[in-house]
Amino acid sequence: MSYEDMICDCGIVPVVVLNDGSEAVPTAKALLAGGINFMEITFRTACCLDSIKLVKENVPEMHVGAGTVLNVDQAKEAVAAGAEFIVSPGIDEETVLWCLSEDIPVIPGCATPTEIMKAIKLGLKTVKFFPANLYGGIKGIKALSAPFTGIRFLPTGGVSQDNLADFFDLTAILAVGGSWICTKKDISEGNFSQITELAKKAVAVKKEKRK
Predict the structure, then answer these.
(1) Any idea of the CA torsion for 138, 142, 144, 145, to the nearest 10 degrees?
(2) What are the tens digits of pLDDT across the range 38-93?
């Protein structure tokens, strides 16, 4: 099974913002308990590299990646810490080419036809659609998927439990991303049982729509 197939099988890639490395392992375990085995730890906080390393070492069942990666140096640091995949808010050619040369799955953000064409030229088949809610959401993906039939999308931004089923209706969507399953508030307050329950609810929708 390819890495893209594994992401598709999971269907949901939570965007995880951690303020302390001690939150990483409990968050990963809470997501696993809810049926989600992918997580994207963002580069928005100083503890991101330690968090990735802790998850990689202590929760081997979890596929941990790095998000909000802005350049190739961050990508290298993330992979050295144990990140299995890289997600970027936009498309940076140097980062994409380095990831491809190292056989690291990379999903850059693309919201326009020009950006998607650049991704295709670089050899990619999956792009992040971000911020989805500002670029037309489901309608935007439908419009873009018509001329780019070989591309699949990972929408992030505005995805929630309320509209999850609508996103899964689109075959062009590989998986969805978002932070509604593990909010910064729930993580910081240690509400890990809540994270597990939200994960279960999201997984139930995915299973219903992708029978």
Answers:
(1) 130
(2) 999 999 999 999 999 999 999 999 999 999 999 999 999 999 999 999 999 999 99
**Amino acid occupying residue 53:** K
Paired tokens of 101: 């040369």
- Domain extent listing, the chain: 3-204
pTM: 0.97
Active site residues: 40, 128
Cβ neighbours, 10 Å, residue 13: 26
- The phi, psi pair for 110, rounded to 5°, reads -140, 125
Give 149: exposed, middle or buried? Use CB within 10 Å, 0-12, 13-18, 19+.
exposed
Evaluated on CA atoms 181, 187, 191, 196, the torsion sign reads positive
CA–CA separation, 29 and 174 (whole Å): 23
Under a CB-based contact definition with an 8 Å cutoff, are residues 157 and 179 in contact?
A: no
* pLDDT tens digit sequence for 2-40: 999 999 999 999 999 999 999 999 999 999 999 999 999
CATH of domain 3-204: 3.20.20.70
* N-terminal to C-terminal alpha carbon distance within the chain: 18
Instruction: Decide: 71 and 91 in contact? Cβ < 8 Å.
Output: no
